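Researcher: Here's my situation. A collaborator sent me these components and asked whether they could plausibly form a single complex. I don't have experimental data yet, so a predicted model of the whole assembly would be a useful starting point for our discussion.
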Amino acid sequence: MIERNFKIWRGNSKGGDFVNYKISIDEGMVVLDALKLIQADQANDLGLRWNCKAGKCGSCSMEINGKPKLACMDRVTDYKEDSQITVRPVKTFPVIKDLVTDLSWNYEQNKRIPPFKPKPRENGAKYRMQQEDVDRVQEFRKCIECYLCQNVCHILRDQEKKNKFVGPRFMIRLASLEMHPLDTEDRIPAIKNEYGSGYCNITKCCTEVCPESIKITDNGIIPIKERVVDRFYDPVLKLFRVFSGSKK
Amino acid sequence: MIDIKELQTFEHDVIVVGAGGSGLRAAIECSVQGMSTAVVCKSLLGKAHTVMAEGGVAASLGNADARDNWKIHFRDTMRGGKFLNDWKMAEHHAKEAADRVNELEEWGAVFDRTKDGLINQRNFGGHRYPRLAHVGDRTGLEIIRTLQDYAVHRENIKVYMECTALGLLKDGERISGLIAYWRDSGEFILFKAKAVILATGGAGRAWRVTSNSWEYTGDGYALAYHAGTELINMEFTQFHPTGMVWPHSVKGILVTEGVRGDGGILLNSEKERFMFRYVPEKFAPETADTEEEGDRWLAGDKTARRPPELITRDEVARAITKEINEGRGSPHGGVFLDIATRIPAEKIKKKLPSMYHQFKVLANLDITKEPMEVGPTLHYFMGGVRVDSDTQMSRVPGLFACGECSGGMHGSNRLGGNSLSDILVFGRLAGLGAKNYVNSLSNKPNIDASQVNEIIKNATDILNRESGTNPYLIHEDLQDVMNRYVNIVRTEEELKTAILELERIKHGAAKVKAVGASQYNPGWHEALSIGNLLISAEAVTLAALMREESRGAHTRLDFPGERDEWLKYIITISKNKDGSMKIEKIERPSPPKELAEIAYAKIEELEK
Ligand SMILES: Cc1cc2nc3c(=O)[nH]c(=O)nc-3n(C[C@H](O)[C@H](O)[C@H](O)COP(=O)(O)OP(=O)(O)OC[C@H]3O[C@@H](n4cnc5c(N)ncnc54)[C@H](O)[C@@H]3O)c2cc1C
Ligand code: SF4
Ligand code: SF4
Ligand code: FES
């Protein structure tokens, strides 16, 4: 058992501050375990979200020592023994209480996206799709909606632009629909005009934080931007192509 | 007294409590049937338990082996449940599962493919053929996301997230709505409705070692129990054979059966593949005798028989427990599960990516190089709300249940993959059942203000009390008791001790105190769930004491083996007028002849 110091942001929409807690850590504990222990012993009303405790549900997103992470997949022993661990809520979405933020904006974006519209079955037969044709779509569908990518995207942090761009999570949602072999809906004009694909300037911060290792920018956003360019014009992508020497 | 006119109020035809697979599928059906539908869930949308499901959804699509058909799925399910399953429910399930899976594909789900481009299927314990449609080891995520995206685009479904149901309301005998509270603000809400569908899942959090999330506190069981329904089969709690055992803080987290389905083997400390010693007579004719035969089966040889690691979960969990108890366990109190020496590293990463990731991050272990350490973990409730097998309605008019919250379908033991199919099949049937019921009503049910007040008072008392017990400590106390006395192997003495212990905990729970305000206060939420956990725990314990035999997931050291006499009965739990728990042994109807013929048929007869 080792003693560790935690600094946790406590407060609500009106404001708050960091509070220090000291606890004993068991071998193999993750930050979420530590927070739950603090909650059980010292701060019964500490607001925090979790479900699966195994990186599968995307509930426990927070900033740990300044890095956006899933608390359930972040081992306490990975931090230097004498260092303090600072935990605060994600920055892009408004705080409800302590580590809990209001994520409803994301749910609203999803509603705006026209759903999957499959081609009809041929005489009621089973659909056929080759594995290699769905690999990419499956990569995007690994998304656990932790919204860490949304949290780090600077476009969404800019209040003015926030309602003009759906953010990386929903760009790959759009990509998963557009690349689905059975889908018949055309979302390309809306991707440009309503979902704001042009705002993304390919900084790749989203890809770096994705706990599912989805190549959000390279495999999702850029190909989608390509499709938009085939019909419209995207100044950022044009520049990107010039610098990266990418063809087409 | 609160004036109910001042409560925030919503009115719908149907309220679905729960947004897992069963709740969402029920809501979609209600919506398709033209009803105004509410979905109420404790977590954010998309975070329900269903998201964690790994291995796959069972349906006799016949894509991986054309010999498969509903009858064989039905037979496997009945044999897995030791014939205690509700016959009609098992029939619905086996017949309709394939349609439900195909429907998901139409709604955008992308399952792994066979070489011919069809939905691929993998092997799982107790299933005769590769039957589980899957997406790597994240099948639940695919299912919940598909249903969620489909549901949010339907105009007549409204989702109330982070909203917890506290108590059901009745107008005379029938349902009239429910009281819930917003987790973020702590405010109470009145839902008026003609019907309520419970899809709240199980109560695994009553145990310390469990694969279940914080949500599994038996809320649906308690809501239904207080409203006057019966719970059945509560003694049958499934211990999944393979949960993580180390590090301590992740003990219980699931290791999918897909590991064994894809060739993983169980070894004891002497490197012995011990499962060969534990094949019960009933499964012996369909199980491999040698490692060589098991391997041929995995490679697709249709003349070979399945390896013993793939018999049903109850058998494997008991075998592991025995190995550990007899001193042949692994260093951290489990046994070894080896996939590293069985299939190439690249294939492991492709087929079991989240297992690879989970062990790498949480246990510092590379499963492509080393064996895992695993042991049993409380996983699933076969028992639950007793419902009509065609309509999913309980004995309270207007109250329905589906998914893990309802009981009967799986008998005494559930086969892996049969829950993801269950939630789809019975979610839909509950929606249809609710439609028929709502249509039959001639007038709208009324709300009784005194019921509303009582529910709200009980909830606020916990906050208003001057002092009292810490809810987290009561919960831990309960978990220790259940893990100690109501585990895989049970005895009369231990169960009786458990009953006394539960009485003691109930006393403490009556004085539970939540500190802080009602705004997003997990301590209060925890305190509100204690009563539900206690009802679930007591129901399991009483039923386990009454059933004097060992069947499926229920094992009595003092009553070994199945007793034919007991096959005739199920145990029901309900609430007495004085508030105490009533337990009854009820005779089952005899099985429909045509179904019995299928269940007891020789496999060759059904393969024709
Ligand atoms: C790790 C893991 C892996 C699994 N793998 C498989 C598998 O491979 N194949 C398989 O078939 N099965 C599997 N299972 C089992 C299966 O996932 C579950 O049994 C199934 O998903 C349950 O679905 P459900 O709709 O009944 O409930 P859930 O998905 O658990 O949903 C319950 C819902 O009820 C809500 N709720 C609960 N109480 C309240 C309340 N008081 N008020 C409001 N809302 C409430 C919750 O918020 C949630 O939305 C697995 C389970 C686990 C834990
Ligand atoms: S790459 Fe685009 S979407 Fe991703 S963080 Fe940068 S701007 Fe945002
Ligand atoms: S894309 Fe990755 S980072 Fe973004 S929400 Fe999904 S899982 Fe999280
Ligand atoms: S609790 Fe599910 S991702 Fe952390």
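Model: Some features of this prediction you could bring to your collaborator: The two ends of chain B are 68 Å apart (CA to CA). Residues A 58, 143-149, 168-169, 172, 209-212, 214, 216 surround iron/sulfur cluster (ligand 3) (CB under 6 Å).
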